[in-house]
Amino acid sequence: MIMTQSKPQAVVTRFAPSPTGYLHIGGARTALFNWLYARHTGGKFLIRIEDTDRERSTRAAVDAIFEGLDWLGLKPDDTVVFQHAREGRHKQAVAELVAKGRAYACFMTQEETEIAREEAREAGHALRSPWRDRTPTDAELEQPHVIRFKGPLADTLVVPDAVQGDVTFNTKDMDDLILLRTDGTPTYNLAVVVDDHDMGITHVIRGDDHLNNAARQSLIYMALDWPVPTFAHIPLIHGPDGAKLSKRHGAQAVGDYQGLGYLPEAMRNYLARLGWSHGDDEIFDDEQAIEWFDIADINRAPARLDFAKLGSVNAHWIRVADDQRLVDLVAAELVATGHAETPQTREILSRTIPLVKERAQTIVQLAEAVHFAVAKGPVPLDEKTKKLLTEETISRLNRLHENVLTWNDWNAEYIDGQLKKFVENEAIGFGKIGPVLRGILSAGHPAPDISKLLASIGREETLVRLTGGLFI
């Protein structure tokens, strides 16, 4: 039996995405777990771009990955490593394996490989090349060939995993994987091992779809006499229905969540709870997450994405967010959705956002909640409001207009008191004037209670809308 072994040392984690598309929400959680564990242990968090597949790797995808990580606030502690730039070092490691007798040149054609694979399957083991125990001549080495890893033929391999426990493999089911292709470029498993070793990675925290790779990579580590890192394979994220997360479940890219109006601190909070927990705590900040997080507490079962819970978490972080920061975010959202920004916009938002943010779950909702305040009066009235404008109501609203001119302060509490005095003097309940007043002042948009509505739009706009409502 082969047992992998690792030596205790200062923790170094890494996030190693392939730049073939956007930063997936599952990848973002993997990056977060690596970042949290490095911070928890006082270690280092590194980033490596696995771009050895030059045909599929794109600059746009690299930029998207960095934009997503920057938005989430997951900064590496050292220079980013680009895997393709280390090709020479990968080949050096392969040469060392060949010299040790742990790798060999294989000259099988594609057709011969398929035949050999089928024969091996019938024999009950993985592919074994006839070149495995042959020494090629110098002339043969001039011909196209790959370099394969020469693994154990039929041993039991146990890979300890910090999440999954001890995972057992039989090497008879593992073919002699290719290390270098015919064009001399390194393959994924070889490059990952060399890079993780050279970067000093002590803990490989990644999705459990890489669990089989852990066995292959462990054998390469041991063949090179390198310490094997601690593996921690985390279950993937599923949709609310328990199926593998896909487009039909909604947003998948980190950039999509930013566009939908979620805050990065809310995403960190929520993603940390997807597959890891600290008792019943649902809301926690970065400092608490760093203090509490341990890979030993990661669940083995897949986590389910719950948009309702994400909305609830995001609502909390909106409520406690700095109002000026929310002003900037809402102003940007308004411009992005076609609203012209005026010199007064930010002043209006500064008054309004503290009054309406309690009910918003996203920045998009918060932007929608201020439409009533940034609209410019006079505005057309809807039919329901027009029907409420009786002679009696118009007379009463004219008296309110005159009353507003005497108010010497302008905040929700003061306005609420003045409105109560007005209806008392009119000897009516507020229901007699509230609906028509809301219809005139809200500009046809959802709005908070009347006192907050007036405080938001300001004295001048209040008078403009009142006047326009009375004469349209």
Explained architecture:
It is a single chain. With 472 residues, the chain is mostly helical. The protein folds into 3 domains: 2-237, Rossmann fold, CATH 3.40.50; 321-374; 383-471, Arc Repressor Mutant, subunit A (Orthogonal Bundle). It has 20 helices and 13 strands. It has helices at residues 25-41, 59-72, 87-99, 110-123, 138-141, 188-198, 211-223, 254-259, 264-272, 286-292, 307-320, 323-336, 345-356, 363-369, 371-374, 383-388, 391-404, 412-426, 434-441, 450-471, and strands at residues 2-3, 12-15, 44-49, 81-82, 103-106, 146-149, 156-161, 165-170, 178-180, 203-207, 230-234, 237-238, 303-304. The strands form 5 sheets. A 3-stranded mixed sheet has the order 1-7-8, with helices on one face. The protein has a 3-stranded parallel sheet with strand order 2-3-4. A 3-stranded antiparallel sheet has the order 5-6-9. α6 (188-198) packs across α7 (211-223) and α12 crosses α14 (363-369). 36% of the residues are buried. The model has no long low-confidence stretch (mean pLDDT 92). One of its GO terms (cellular component) is cytosol. Its EC number is 6.1.1.17. Belongs to the class-I aminoacyl-tRNA synthetase family. Glutamate--tRNA ligase type 1 subfamily. Residues 334-467 form the Aminoacyl-tRNA synthetase class I anticodon-binding domain.
